[in-house]
Amino acid sequence: MSGNVWQRCEEIHPEDPSKCVIRGGCFTFEASASRSASRQMIDNWYRSPTIGFRIAVAVRD
Predict the structure, then answer these.
(1) pTM above 0.90, yes or no
(2) Which Gene3D superfamilies match (predicted)?
(3) Between the CA of residue 17 and those of 1, 13, 42, 44, what are the distances in Å?
(4) Closest CA to 27 of 46, 5, 45, 48
(5) 28-43, pLDDT tens digit by residue?
(6) Are 33 and 6 in contact (CB under 8 A)?
């Protein structure tokens, strides 16, 4: 699922608490940045059409 848009993560960047982490790259970057291990930091307030988030739900037994 990587490569469409950067995935905004809940974690705060360890070097700067005012920044959040985005992972996975997007279609506007080169292929090497579209790996799930690719990580960048952005300002918490920053919004872009190339940044999204993934909704996940735990399934009960």
Answers:
(1) no
(2) paralog of FGE (formylglycine-generating enzyme) (3.90.1580.10)
(3) 27, 6, 11, 9
(4) 5
(5) 877 776 777 788 889 9
(6) no
What are the φ and ψ backbone dihedral angles of 5, each rounded to 5 degrees? Answer: -140, 160
Flag whether pLDDT at 2 surpasses 70: no
Edge-to-edge strand ranges of the sheet holding 51-52:
39-43, 19-23, 6-12, 51-52
Write the DSSP string, 1-61: -TTSSEEEEEEEPTT-TTEEEEES--TTS-GGGGSTT-EEEEETT---TTEE-----PPP-
Handedness of CA 30, 36, 41, 45 (dihedral sign): positive
Token duo for residue 34? 């579209």
Alpha-carbon torsion, ordered 27, 33, 35, 38, to 10 deg? -130
